[in-house]
């Protein structure tokens, strides 16, 4: 709390400054009678120090004093920190007009003439104290208002229409970057601060307001003397006289630059891609919807080009996300350039302008929207240019990188009536471009239907899957019925797709077959399975056999024998623990060649098994000629052996047949105890199926093995049980 308030609650303090002790005494006498506290100083210098100490509310100052006269003392007092608040009364000689003028110049509040009229003095002083009080209150509330305005960056103004003068509060000066003393505010001068482009708008809003009794609110930009631009919000209202004539206006101005910036930032985040600064999916959608709407009206065409980078994922994975981000930025720049240059191409070709806009949909996917087209070929020109610009060499972190892109084009209205179908079809066409060897663009065609597309997508992604380590092996145990022990595992591949989850080999192995990808996938499976089984061998488990499926294309691969040998060499796996599974249909195709091939494989020392036995057309005579070790009874028979006498009979016969050929039998897909019992009774050697365990990832296998030792192996060690 300040001293002023304290003093106000108590009695007011008056400082009497006079070199004449008699005058001081008389004054004290008179003022104390009126309930005031009186302090004295006998000259100007004393007065200054007494002022600091006593903090009086009023000072009575004699003019003629030694050392420092009253005028000088007055102006010195005014310079003190609390000096502006205090009332100062100068006591001059009667009719000394010069002194009176001087008194006001040096900041006196009032004057009293000598000789002093004593009876009146205290009334005069009391009256002055009251005025000073009122002034102080006013100043304080003004200060509060101006502080509040400064916090809100908000100022108030008034306009006198007759004199054309404007009153501005301090904060408006501050907002406009102007000094109150140097700027003579008229309406015209104010308008000069308004941004040129917004001036007409402001003038119009104010003119309208002058004619109606209504609050107006506008946002506009102002330019500060130093060239800075600010955004302000203004509200105003007109004051009318009794005759309805506008005589003035008043209102507020608020600095909303930060809010506008925040709004712009929010808009940017909502509509633009932060990394590249390109429009994002949302803005693309809005542009496209508008373009399609206009094309419908004008009978024009709109093309959507869908661009996907061919090898971005690999670069991202090998060089890291930071480099990947840089690459995307650079590509975005190149694409922007390419679009600018293709704008020129399409323009000069057609004489009229087409509009092109580039967006990033996410990841390494971009779209280019071409509106106002008259011919499809224009889209081809642009797409070609885009593909060319994408593969411009780039230097990222000192490395030269080359990226290519594949693009699909769909055109409104030919390939779709709305954005959704256009995008879908452009996406389909893009996959065809990838299929056609990448680094090219394809128009959408109707034959690119959903199922071929799904296949194509799978194909494109499958190629990446191997590079990205998305393929994994599961293992399914095979149990010896006699002992209850796990004696082997079949390796079964899975595709751990980042979005689609685990994909079954039934879905992707056929595609891998067709595209030839199976060769490299197959090599990976063989190597991984052999290496894994060695890990378990070395860990001290009873040596297990590993079954690896071979597909037809793999089997026909010239270097199969060589590559199997190589894998065994590098993993140090004893060949007798490897069993290659070949389906019946594979070995029955081109029998003579197969026999040679199988013998070559056998020479390595591994096992061969016939997978899915019973589903093909194996004839006994052929089977005899193949160097086989195991026969896997297909799941489809096992399924119904306990209910379907036909399946039971076939299974029985197969087991007998296998025995006669000295082949081990494994029944696949064993799910129930009943099936197991039946198979045991028929003399089947081994079983594989959910009853024992479904295929599990490698880390689960050890657990299974340990369990099989302790539970299932017990009877063997303790025949008494
Ligand atoms: P397959 O060689 O006949 O493999 C056995 C399939 O039966 C596996 O399906 C397995 O999960 C499933 N299965 C096992 N026990 C049971 C059971 O008790 N009930 C039922 N209903 N099913 C059972 P999966 O893993 O989906 O493999 C399907 C096929 O994909 C395999 O059939 C094989 O032909 C092929 N495949 C899997 N991995 C590879 C591989 O690495 N290379 C090649 N070329 N083909 C593979
Ligand atoms: Ca198999
Ligand atoms: Ca099988």
Note down, in words, how this protein is organized.
Strand 19 (486-497) and strand 20 form a beta hairpin. The strands form five sheets. This protein has an eight-stranded mixed barrel, surrounded by four helices. By secondary structure, the chain is of the alpha/beta class. It has four domains: 3-138, Response regulator (Rossmann fold, 3-Layer(aba) Sandwich), CATH 3.40.50.2300; 147-262, PAS domain (Beta-Lactamase, 2-Layer Sandwich); 274-444, Reverse transcriptase/Diguanylate cyclase domain (Alpha-Beta Plaits); 461-632 and 692-709, EAL domain (TIM Barrel, Alpha-Beta Barrel), CATH 3.20.20. It is elongated. Helix 2 crosses helix 6, helix 13 runs antiparallel to helix 14 (376-390) and helix 16 (450-467) crosses helix 17. The structure holds ligand C2E and calcium ion (CA) (2 copies). Residues 490, 549, 581, 611 line the site of one calcium ion (CA).
Tags for this model:
alpha/beta, Alpha-Beta Plaits, elongated, disordered N terminus, 8-stranded mixed beta barrel, Beta-Lactamase, 721 residues, 28 helices, 4 domains, disordered C terminus, Rossmann fold, 5-stranded parallel sheet, binds ligand C2E, binds calcium ion
* Major β-sheet annotation: 8 strands, mixed, barrel
Distance between termini? 98 Å
CATH superfamily of the largest domain: EAL domain
Which segments are poorly predicted (pLDDT under 50) over 5 or more consecutive residues?
A: 1-8, 712-721
**Which strands sit side by side, in order, in the main sheet?**
18-19-21-22-23-24-25-26
Domain count: the total is: 4
Q: Which CATH class of the largest domain is shown?
A: Alpha Beta
Query: Count of DSSP helices?
Result: 28
Shape: elongated
Q: In the CATH scheme, what's the topology name of the largest domain?
A: TIM Barrel
For the secondary structure, the number of strands is 27
As a percent range, the share of strand residues is: 15-25%
CATH architecture of the largest domain: Alpha-Beta Barrel
Using only C-alpha atoms, the radius of gyration works out to: 49 Å
Helix content: 40-55%
Q: How does the helix and strand content classify structurally?
A: alpha/beta
Query: Bound small molecules, which ones?
Result: ligand C2E, calcium ion
Mean pLDDT across residues = 89
Oligomer: single chain
């Amino acid at each position: 709390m300040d001293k002023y308030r304290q003093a106000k609650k108590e009695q007011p303090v008056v400082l009497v400054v006079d070199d004449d002790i008699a005058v001081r005494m008389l004054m004290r006498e008179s003022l104390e009678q009126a309930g005031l506290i009186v302090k004295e100083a006998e000259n100007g210098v004393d007065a200054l120090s007494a002022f600091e100490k006593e903090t009086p509310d009023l000072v009575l100052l004699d003019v003629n004093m030694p050392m420092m006269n009253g005028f000088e003392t007055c102006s010195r007092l005014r310079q003190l920190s609390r000096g502006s608040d205090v009332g100062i009364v100068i006591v001059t000689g009667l009719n000394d007009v010069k002194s009176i003028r001087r008194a006001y110049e040096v900041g006196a509040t009032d004057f009293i003439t000598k000789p002093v009229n004593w009876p009146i003095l205290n009334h005069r002083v009391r009256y002055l104290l009251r005025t000073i009080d009122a002034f102080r209150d006013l100043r304080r509330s003004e200060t509060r208002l101006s502080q509040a305005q400064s916090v809100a960056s908000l100022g108030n103004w008034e306009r006198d229409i007759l004199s054309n003068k404007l009153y501005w509060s301090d904060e408006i000066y501050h907002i406009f970057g102007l000094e109150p003393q140097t700027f003579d505010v008229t309406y015209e001068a104010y308008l000069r601060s308004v941004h040129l482009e917004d001036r007409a708008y402001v003038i119009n809003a104010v003119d309208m307001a002058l004619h109606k009794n209504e609050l107006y609110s506008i946002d506009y930009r102002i330019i500060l003397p130093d060239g800075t631009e600010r955004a302000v919000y203004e509200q105003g209202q007109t004051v009318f006289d009794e005759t309805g004539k506008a005589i003035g206006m008043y209102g507020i101005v608020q600095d909303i630059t930060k809010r506008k910036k925040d709004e712009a930032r929010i808009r940017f985040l909502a509509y633009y891609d932060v990394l590249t600064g390109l429009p994002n999916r949302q803005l693309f959608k809005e542009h496209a919807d508008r373009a399609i709407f206009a094309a419908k009206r004008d009978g024009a065409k709109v093309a959507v080009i869908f661009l996907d980078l061919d090898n971005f994922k690999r670069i991202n994975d090998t060089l890291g996300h930071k480099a990947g981000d840089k690459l995307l930025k650079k590509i975005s720049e190149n694409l922007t350039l390419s679009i600018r240059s293709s704008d020129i191409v399409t323009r000069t070709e057609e004489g009229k302008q087409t509009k092109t806009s580039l967006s990033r949909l996410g990841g390494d996917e971009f779209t280019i929207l071409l509106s106002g087209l008259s011919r499809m070929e224009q889209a081809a020109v642009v797409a070609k240019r885009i593909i060319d610009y994408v593969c411009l060499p780039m230097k990222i972190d000192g490395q030269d990188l080359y990226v290519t892109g594949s693009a699909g084009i769909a055109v409104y209205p030919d390939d779709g009536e709305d954005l959704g179908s256009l995008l879908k079809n452009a996406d389909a066409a893009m996959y065809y471009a990838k299929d056609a060897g990448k680094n090219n663009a394809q128009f959408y065609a109707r034959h690119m239907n959903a199922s071929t597309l799904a296949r194509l997508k799978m194909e494109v992604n499958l190629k990446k899957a191997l590079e990205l380590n998305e393929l994994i092996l599961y293992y399914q145990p095979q149990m010896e019925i006699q002992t209850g022990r796990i004696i082997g595992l079949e390796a079964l591949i899975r595709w751990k797709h980042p979005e689609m989850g685990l994909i079954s080999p039934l879905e992707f192995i056929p595609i891998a077959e067709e595209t030839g990808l199976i060769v490299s996938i197959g090599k990976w499976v063989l190597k991984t399975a052999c290496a894994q089984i060695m890990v378990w061998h070395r860990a001290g488990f009873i040596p297990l056999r590993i079954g690896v499926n071979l597909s037809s294309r793999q089997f026909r691969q010239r270097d199969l024998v060589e590559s199997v040998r190589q894998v065994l060499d590098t993993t140090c796996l004893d060949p007798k623990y490897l069993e290659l599974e070949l389906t019946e249909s594979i070995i029955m195709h081109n029998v003579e060649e197969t026999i040679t091939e199988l013998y070559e494989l056998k020479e390595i020392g591994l096992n061969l098994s016939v997978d899915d036995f019973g589903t093909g057309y194996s004839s006994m005579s052929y089977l005899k000629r193949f160097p086989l070790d195991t026969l896997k009874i297909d799941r489809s028979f096992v399924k119904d052996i306990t209910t379907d006498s036909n399946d039971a009979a076939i299974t029985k016969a197969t087991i007998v047949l296998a025995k006669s050929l000295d082949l081990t039998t494994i029944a696949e897909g064993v799910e129930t105890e009943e099936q197991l019992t039946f198979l045991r009774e028929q003399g089947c050697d081994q079983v594989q199926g959910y009853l024992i365990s479904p295929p599990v990832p490698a880390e689960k296998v050890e657990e299974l093995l340990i369990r099989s030792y302790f539970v299932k192996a017990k009877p063997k060690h303790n025949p008494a049980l």
